Amino acid sequence: MITTATLCAVTLLAGFTQGISGFGSVLLVMPVAALLFGMPVAIPLTGIVALSLNITLLTALRREMRGRDIAPILVGLVPGFPLGVMVLRQAEPVVLEAILATLVLCFALYSLLPGRAKPRPWGGRAGFAVGVLSGGLGGSIGANGPPVVAYLASQGLPKDRVRAAMAAYFLLTGCIITSTHVVFGLVTSQVLELFAFALPCLALGAFLGTRYCARVSEAAYRRLVTLFLLGLGTLMAGRVLLQ
């Protein structure tokens, strides 16, 4: 009873967080699910949770979606994934995680400096580089999200367009991840039962988060995303130090 109640609570929070910012559900669900059910269940369960959230968000924000917002990133992903696999064979995963945590923290702290309230777009070439970097991180340590979030948050786009772009990107990568889990038999009946049990709380959280985001100004949204990235970088750094 306590286990299922905890799962419902964390999925409610995950839905609320992603409903506001457009990302973050994996960071909340994965560690709690791993503690409750073990990694073999937590990994596919978290993937399905994130996939369902991104489908919901992209459906709600479909009119804000622009293919050009994520096109350079997707092009960069193609060489990035195999590059990441090659890097993983040569470097320790903890070193890669430390580098990523440092980059995320530096970006977040820099974005919070006085005079950085207005975003400065990186441009299409930077988008391709972000795609390569994200693909490389996804192929090596499975953390392809932070560079994309930082890039999209810096483009000066309206908040709903940023959230739509994030949802589209994470939906595409999530389909690949979950399809892989299905092929390898990781999506078991237990995983599906837990997801079905938590789905109402997940949907409620996403609804509340989306409603709250509608009341947040553009500047406040960018600051909120930056604070989320700061928290993400801190969590990653803490995990590295504990290894």
Features:
single chain, 243 residues, mainly alpha, 10 helices, 82% helix
| Total helical segments | 10
Strand content is: under 5%
Radius of gyration: 17 Å
Number of strands: 0
Overall average residue pLDDT: 84
Number of domains: 1
Q: Helix content range of the residues, please?
A: over 70%
Question: Rough shape?
Answer: globular
Distance between the termini: 32 Å
Counting helices, strands and paired strands, the structural category is mainly alpha
SSE succession:
HHHHHHHHHH
**Which residue ranges are poorly predicted, with pLDDT under 50 across at least 5 consecutive positions?**
none
Instruction: Note the main sheet.
Output: none
Protein name: Probable membrane transporter protein
Pfam families: TauE
Membrane topology: Multi-pass membrane protein
GO cellular component, one term: plasma membrane
